[in-house]
Amino acid sequence: MKKALLILTSLTLLASAAQARTWDDIKKSGTIKIATEGAFPPFNILKGKELTGFEVELANALAKQMGLKVQWVTQPFDNLLIGLNQDRYDFVIASHGITPERQKAVDFSNPHYCTGGAIVTKPGGPMTAAALKGKKVAVQVGTTYLENVRKVPGVGDVKTFPKDTDAQAALMAGRTDAWVGDKFTGLDLVKAQKGKVVQGDLLFKERIAMAVKKGNASLLKELNSQLAKAMSNGTYAKISTGYFGQDIRCK
Ligand code: ARG
């Protein structure tokens, strides 16, 4: 009995003492483990078996600069930061806006792009925050869109979906009056649905960054320096222009 208790205690101690891999550990292993959602086009999207998108290409380029192989992991958006704190991967790149709430749980790199949350609706629908009064709005769960839409005075039903693309589909099917999502994603939707939807106001702005486990300073430093390098050697501009026709770095 006593022995079992001892084993249990030491196991608990071991688990809580588990450490994120430092930059040195990662470099020695030759492979970096990166997590994303894979359902947030055009930033991270699993197309059949191929994981692609602006953030996937950017992270692959950073890893290449580091001389490392990449092992990608995909997780539902809402689980990404939890898995990071359980040491399941080294960092997350999944369009997380830097928020005070998230900063309590993880450490963020310098931003890899700047954007905002915008309203998309059918022609004649609500285009401004004021017009969202009493309206049904679709958003992805666990996002800054949810947080910010909830703050709109008098907003009607806020419906959450596990995936952003499901929230868009709810608007298209007429189950909600609006969808709030990333402004670049919204532009793509407007283009793809020619004339069926329009983009309204930007509700808020945000800086998007990669996340490491809280306290993993050595990896954070490496990511920041590789990002700066990609931003100065033309790599970042090339990938960004390829996806958006413009450079979306924070100005
Ligand atoms: N930028 C928003 C946020 O910070 C949405 C991110 C959603 N990302 C995703 N991979 N679905 O919450």
From TrEMBL:
UniProt domain Solute-binding protein family 3/N-terminal: residue ranges: 31-247
Signal peptide range in chain numbering: 1-20
Coiled coil: none
Keyword Signal in annotation: yes
A Pfam family that the UniProt record links to this protein: SBP_bac_3
PROSITE patterns, alphabetized: SBP_BACTERIAL_3
Entry superkingdom: Bacteria
The keyword Isomerase is assigned to this record: no
Organism annotation: Deinococcus hopiensis KR-140
Protein name: Amino acid ABC transporter substrate-binding protein, PAAT family
